[in-house]
Design brief:
Helix content is 22%, strand content 36%. It has 126 residues and is α+β, with helices and mostly antiparallel strands. It has a domain of 84 residues: Beta Barrel (OB fold (Dihydrolipoamide Acetyltransferase, E2P)), CATH 2.40.50. A 5-stranded mixed β-barrel has the order 1-2-3-5-4. A hairpin with a 2-residue loop joins strand 1 and strand 2. It starts with a helix and ends in an 8-residue tail after the last strand. InterPro entries: NlpE_C, NlpE_C_sf.
């Protein structure tokens, strides 16, 4: 009888240890609210890039809003593809995925919402 209680206690401890070690850590970025970001956006075949105002860093762009590329094509004539426009967006910056065209960049800007797009680039955003 004593041996059975020891086995039961042993297996209970094993199960508890496995349950606590298998818990995944919460994704801190998943709950993070999108931030409003202002900067320069360029779209051309094979390249969608964003440079924040006053910064030299460039990010790959993923348009989960499905509005950025559409509004860009309505703002810029076909002959002007590749031109830079000023945008204000809500989005998040995430590490670029390896093995994708974004991997050339350290980070990717994930656009959640397009707020503003214009050909007129403000003087403080060059």
């Amino acid at each position: 009888m004593r041996l059975t209680q020891q086995h039961l206690l042993f297996w209970t401890m094993i199960v508890i240890a496995m349950a606590t070690s298998c818990k995944s850590k919460p994704d801190t970025n998943a709950d993070e609210a999108p931030a409003t970001i202002k900067g320069l956006y360029t779209f051309e075949p094979g390249a969608k890039t964003f440079t924040p105002c006053g910064k030299s860093s460039q990010f790959w762009v993923v348009d989960s809003s499905a509005q950025l590329e559409l509004q860009y094509s309505q703002t810029i004539n076909f002959e002007q593809q590749g031109s830079t426009v000023y945008v204000e967006i809500e989005g998040k910056i995430a590490p670029s995925a390896a093995g994708t065209e974004a991997a050339v960049f350290d980070s990717t800007l994930v656009v959640k919402k397009l707020i503003k797009i214009t050909k007129d680039i403000p003087a403080d955003c060059k």
